[in-house]
Known about the structure:
Blueprint: H1 6-16, H2 19-26, H3 33-43, E1 62-64, E2 67-69, E3 73-75, H4 88-99, E4 104-105, H5 113-118, E5 125-128, H6 134-146, E6 151-155, H7 165-170, H8 177-189, H9 192-200, H10 211-214, H11 220-230, H12 239-246, E7 251-256, H13 259-267, E8 272-275, H14 289-300, E9 305-308, H15 315-323, E10 328-331, H16 333-365
Parallel strand pairs: 3-10, 4-5, 5-6, 6-7, 7-8, 8-9, 9-10
Antiparallel strand pairs: 1-2
Amino acid sequence: MKAASALDYRELARRRLPPFLFEYLDGGSYAEVTLRRNTEALKRVALRQRVLRDVSKIDTSTTLFGRRCALPLALAPIGLGGMNARRGEVQAARAAEAAGVPFTLSTVSACPLEEVAGATKAPLWFQLYVIRDRSFMRDLLHLAKDRGCDALIFTVDMPVPGSRYRDYRSGLAGSPGLTGQLRRLWQGATHPRWAWDVGIKGRPHQLGNVAPVLGKNTGLEDFFAWMRNNFDPTVTWNDLDFVRSVWDGPLIIKGILDAEDAVKAAELGADGIVVSNHGGRQLDGVPASAEALPPIAEAVGDRLTVLADGGIRSGLDVVRMLALGARGVLLGRAWAYALAGGGEAGVRHVLSLIEAEMGVAMSLTGATRIEDIDGSILVQNRSAKTRPPEGT
């Protein structure tokens, strides 16, 4: 099967990954209402087609947090992303560098920050969860600074992990001890391509950034137990002071779904926010990111940089999010599917597809620059004002 779109890579990923990994990547929380809502809401966004305009020169580049990017996007942090291909985060970071966009490394990545940063010349973005052990957070932030990361994504919508029932059905989280290990070993053995390329040649299998605190307890059960015991439900807005005391670069708050929270982030000096419901993996039944985005962008779009994620599978979806008020997007599952289905080449291919799809959508809406994409290209909002430039 040859992938012609990001959705084709999802099918390739389903075939090539052991079920416990595919379901972890593909699934959401509870009944997955919000997971479906994310993609459905974007499909309903109608663009206003315009004709007889000079669209011979299309520029998809923009500036995000001081960096000139070839596309208005960054690769989102994906937990366990490196298990989807051999040393997967390294491959994805190389693909992002080649495409001229940032790559964001998750706190709970398979490959450690040192390895991924050492494999590329372009600086990474780093994602941080709120951990009870503030000294551990401080050490990670110092390491991110030392390795040249030029933006921090601070994820705040996970004080407790969501209930993801697919993970229990697949054996990732629901079968402790030897039973769970045997289930996963069997699933790996029945997917020999992954077993050889990732399971054997992709060693060591550690959660690189948290390996120092996990010690010898490197199994998946140990990881999920660590998450349950160490993610901090006591976190408040006051904890931003701690992060700012250690991190002096661009600070992006990820997990905003409410305009009042967005205003609070702006008041406390955040440089950006990500309008996000964690890909439908946390609280099921909340609005789609595309539904939550417009009032948030209206409330704070002139005070900080608004990004968005959730349900983005194509360049057309990127244009839709920009028209709804975002200055850029985080691309999540789309790159992870491509990594599982085609490695670094797959991620490069998806990014080239997104660039081409954006070019067509921009041409047919009469927008020749990213700055031209705003609410005026939406059918239901012809009089919308242009999104303010970054930093105003």
